[in-house]
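Reagents: none. Just compute today. Glutamate--tRNA ligase.
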Amino acid sequence: MASESGARTREVVTRFAPSPTGFLHIGGARTALFNWLYARHHGGKALLRIEDTDKKRSTQEAIDAILDALDWLGLDYDEEPTFQSQRADRHAEVANKLLEAGHAYKCFTTPEDLEQMRAEQRANKLPMRYDGRWRDRDPSEAPAGAPFVVRLKTPTEGETSIDDAVQGRVTVRNEEIDDYIILRADGSPTYMLAAVVDDHDMGVTHVIRGDDHLNNAFRQLPIYHAMHEIEGDWEPPVYAHVPLIHGSDGAKMSKRHGSLGAEAYRDEHGILPEALSNYLLRLGWGHGDREEISREEAIELFDLSGVGKSPSRFDMKKLEHLNGCYIREADDARLASICAPLIGSEMDLDLLTRAMPVLKNRAKNTHELAEGAAFLFKQRPLEMTEKAASLLDDGARANLSTLSERLKAENNWTIDALEATTKSLAEELELGLGKLAQPLRAALTGTTTSPGIFDVLVLLGREEALARIDAQAAAAG
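Predicted 3D structure written out:
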């Protein structure tokens, strides 16, 4: 088995190979990221293969969703995607070579025979495996024209060891692996064969995937060994099986933990792609105590030696915290372009962009940004929340009327000048600033929460701000 260091004598080639039967779930997104980073770190190639051989479950909608999610995460690939379904002839070609060389055989066992075999194994509490009944029989013993599958002859004695780049040395007794099917009765290849042939033909040097595939590695190696014997250039890849992601409670990740498609974190949770990428990077890989790691730094630092052997725990609150950090660092125009469709109404994109420095200081996701900006684009008369309306009694409206006159006399429409004017009036009225500022916020935004009230006045501008104040000051109590 090749070691990780040995494989570096060749150009590193990784592949991400999703099955398009649904969205790109969070574990798949991390696998894609780890493969991409490893290739970029070593100056190699990152490839994409769509494993769409399950014709009943694979859909174009799922393919589009996976490609969209990968693009959103900024994971680009060095060649056009390979579609496994288009390579069935090549897979069958390899199966026939294995058959001709005696490394595979035709199996004529009927479905009824298989069910009887399994029933006997269950009754005797034996492992559920094909018993090799056609392994050494001559096909001429089968009825003429009988359907058959092609099974691989796997080793029956000894052990196979893999020096996994994450798990370390893992050993399995060969007797635990049965002669599995590589070609179905209709001539179509199985996943186990197709994956090996595609990895070989794509020049894949490192297979980085979830540790739920570890058993597959022991089933796939005999194909490499047999084809190496036949053709001489089938070198197995370095395997790196990454522990799965669990929920915050330590249980297997599910929808209740936030096991959603990558696009759902964007669309439903308002997560930025760089935040999700950073969070996924830190799920199972670490570099000291660093939490924020840029894409450029990740490429420089990432290696398989930093991947842990224990499952990681997904924590939505930690992701949101990290997302808030990235929102505060993000370009204002970019944030405005993300938030604009969420607000939905006609808007001034320049105004929304100018508002971002104020809005993004407290937002944890883009939905909160959009909600915080909504007041800028409301039409008069403003719809009031129940709490906001309760602040606007007759006394508050009278104070707003006085404040409006003072603000109209203000020549310098800046935060400092507006704050000084408002504080001065509050002192005259012998009110705490909040007693004046809260009704003012209600009048300007229709809510009781907003950015700083003087930021709101400046963002709305003199004309709109005074019009909103006057509208509430004149309203009946």
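The longest strand covers residues 45-50.
Action item: order primers for follow-up constructs.
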